[in-house]
Amino acid sequence: MPRPPTGGAGHGTAGAADQLVSIGTVLTQLREEFPEVTISKIRFLEAEGLVEPQRTASGYRKFSPADVERLARILRMQRDHYLPLKVIRDHLDALERGEQVRLPAPAPGGRRESPDGDPWDTDADAPTAARVGRAELLVAAGVGEDELAEWEAYGLITPVADGAYDAEAVTIAKLVAELGGFGLEPRHLRAVKAAAEREAGLVEQVVAPLRRHRNPQTRAHAEATAKELAALSVRLHAALLQTALGVRLH
Fold first, then answer.
1. Coil, strand, or helix at residue 167?
2. Where does a domain end: 85, 110, 135?
3. Which residues lie closer than 8 Å to 142 by C-beta, 6 or more apart?
4. Its pTM surpasses 0.90
5. Of 70, 182, 196, 200, which sits with the fewest C-beta atoms within 10 Å of its C-beta?
6. Is 105 within the bounds of a domain?
């Protein structure tokens, strides 16, 4: 059966539609330059509003050539300049306005920010190897020696090799202290710690092949990928917890 002739605006629309590709095709195209990229990474960038693919009536994502180039530009900014997504977003907005953007040189020592911005990095300018002493930790958490010793006994807080604590220990200490105000004792929090360790194991399964990869750029992305997966896990955990509470409380 002969196809009806097309022309004018209709023909242009059909041509544009022919250039749209699925997320699987996008992944194949990007992996030539970014072997570590995954479908979850592309979806994450979409969720963060950095790319907006079209959707079919069935809800499938369809990416234009401009979308693919935008994704590649985002990944280059992360890989080559270690930029967090909030900075990348500003740069992309400036480029769309026709402004020139000067990208910084790679950070000394290869330090990179969290790929998802503020939800993971509470202080983007803090050194990644920050340490605090025991006295500083006690003051920051507003607790005494006995409480800290109990938390350590339950494995909620663990000093590093030199007897100091990493910066994240301050956050944990404050949260444990706040939960204690609601009657939740360290023994109650062992389940939370166990769940976190299981999630860390899942993240390690994903990033382990990246760390063993022959491509040094892929190995360098292992840490960023781990942080991204951790941030996604935190969001998923929060959503599942809210759902569970909604079911139980109603």
1. coil
2. 110
3. 174, 177
4. no
5. 182
6. yes
